[in-house]
Amino acid sequence: MPRRPERRPGRSPTGCAARVEPDRRETAGRAFVQARAPGLPRAAAPAIVRSVLRIIDAPDLAPLFARDARAEVALSGRVRAGGTERVVQGRVDRLAVTADMVHLADFKTGRPPEPGAPLPAAEAGQIALYARLLAQIYPGRTIRPILVWTSGPVIRALDSDDVATALDRIGIEA
């Protein structure tokens, strides 16, 4: 049986920008970027901050940036592949667990798929595997896996058919 995700010691359960009041996020974001990347041209900071805020403020992603959401959660568990039980591990970028639902997201920096195009097999397989592990950890809850390409952002939720197809492609048995 997979173990429940735990917070890493010394790590915040949410990102810095998600904890800052909305009307102060842009100012705080610029200060953060300047402090972490002092060599970055000053003109670049506002664009970086706006890009991050588009993600944090996206309504579809709101549960993932709520107070109780977690960042970079380690997962481990067992799945069947090729008739053999295998131990798998991963790290989900964002996780939010409610009484009836588990939201999870994996962020991608590459080129997003075109609207209506199939999801890239590797990315879909990764988030589907995380969804499978979380379904074992949180039985009876709806699992909502989302891939987020940071340019845009482009947000693609996977339904149960998408998850089943992605798992089948990577050889994970139902």
Written description of the protein model:
This protein has 174 residues and is of the alpha+beta class. Helices cover 32% and strands 26% of the residues. It contains five helices and five strands, in the order H-H-H-E-E-E-H-E-E-H. It has helices spanning 16-19, 25-36, 44-56, 121-137, 160-169, and strands at 70-81, 84-97, 101-108, 142-149, 154-157. The protein has a five-stranded mixed beta sheet with strand order 1-2-3-4-5, with helices on one face. A hairpin with a 4-residue loop joins strand 4 and strand 5. Helix 4 (121-137) crosses helix 5. The chain is elongated. The protein starts with 15 loop residues before the first helix and ends in a 5-residue tail after the last helix.
Secondary structure blueprint with pairings:
Elements: H1 16-19, H2 25-36, H3 44-56, E1 70-81, E2 84-97, E3 101-108, H4 121-137, E4 142-149, E5 154-157, H5 160-169
Parallel strand pairs: 3-4
Antiparallel strand pairs: 1-2, 2-3, 4-5
Tags for this model:
single chain; 174 residues; alpha+beta; five-stranded mixed sheet; 5 helices; 32% helix
Instruction: Tell me the structural class.
Output: alpha+beta
Shape: elongated
pLDDT < 50 stretches: 7-14
Q: Which series of helices and strands comes N to C? A: HHHEEEHEEH
Number of strands: 5
Radius of gyration: 17 Å
Question: Looking at the chains present, what oligomeric state does this protein adopt?
Answer: single chain
Distance between the termini: 16 Å
Percentage beta strand: 25-35%
Tell me the helix content. Answer: 25-40%
SS summary, helix count = 5
Calculate the mean pLDDT score and round it: 89
State the strand order across the main sheet.
1-2-3-4-5
> How many strands, which pairing sense, and closed or not: the largest β-sheet?
5 strands, mixed
